[in-house]
Design goal:
This protein is mainly alpha-helical and 146 residues long. It is built from 5 helices and 4 strands, in the order αβαααβββα. Helix 1 crosses helix 4, helix 2 packs antiparallel against helix 4 and helix 4 runs antiparallel to helix 5.
Length: 146
């Protein structure tokens, strides 16, 4: 009988570790960007400054309700995709933290080829959605081959 030395983590632990890494890395990068003199913009709206005229408090409240609703409404789905969940909720929580502390999201990463800046939390959200799409395409492809 061979015992595997590779440690297995529960889905909840994978979600938590990925979430904590995402929040920590994003917050660290925002502070490092400020420290090293990168131009930082404060975005009180959502992506691409949409809805910025509605005020940060309202947007923060709506996004918080949205995140909580997604978590509880799709709980079994997230446990099937723990890294996606950690990236998605880590990005969302990190940006909510910015809103709570600064009244806006700190954007410092210029988007290549555009006059848009974002942050690592935004990229985590984008990667999570991309991974989810990729996993669904792969699953559908496997079903069609059977």
């Amino acid at each position: 009988m061979q015992v595997s030395s590779k440690k297995q983590y529960s889905p909840d632990r994978k979600i938590l570790l990925t979430l904590l890494f995402t929040v920590g890395f994003d917050q660290f990068s925002k502070e490092a960007a400020r420290f090293f003199g990168f131009a930082t913009q404060f975005n009180s709206g959502i992506s691409l400054s949409l809805l910025s005229s509605y005020g940060s408090e309202l947007i923060t409240a709506v996004l918080l309700i949205f995140i909580i609703g997604l978590w509880y409404g799709l709980r079994s789905f997230w446990t099937e995709h723990p890294v996606v969940a950690g990236l998605f909720f880590g990005g969302g929580i990190s940006n909510l933290f910015d809103r709570a502390v600064y009244g806006a999201v700190r954007d410092w990463l210029p988007l290549p080829g555009a006059s848009i800046t974002n942050n690592l939390a935004d990229w985590a959200l984008f990667v999570a959605i991309g991974l989810l799409f990729w996993q669904n395409v792969q699953a559908e492809s496997s079903r069609q081959r059977k």
